[in-house]
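== Item description ==
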Amino acid sequence: MNDHLNHINFLYKPKLDYIKNFLDKIPNINILEFGVMHGRSTRFFLDLCSQLDGKLTSVDMNDHSKLFSDKNWLFIHSRDDNVKLIDRLKTEKFDIIYIDSLH
């Protein structure tokens, strides 16, 4: 693994481990994630959804729809400041909204 990916993993792991302490006991967890990029947080949330029979919805302006093939995952190709999308999503109950984006 190159130094850049090692650095990214080093930055993400403590943050995701901290989050897991709060989420790993929520059955049927429903997660909304803004920002996919390399898919590290997405993979983490999908693993959690698999354990807890949950669902992950990820939104990113870049098309990462082929990054994972998982029945618990819905990818939405959109900017996270898309007002129509936010209006549609606000009708759903999410246990966590994870914002990892610059928009």
Q: What stands out?
A: The mean pLDDT is 86.
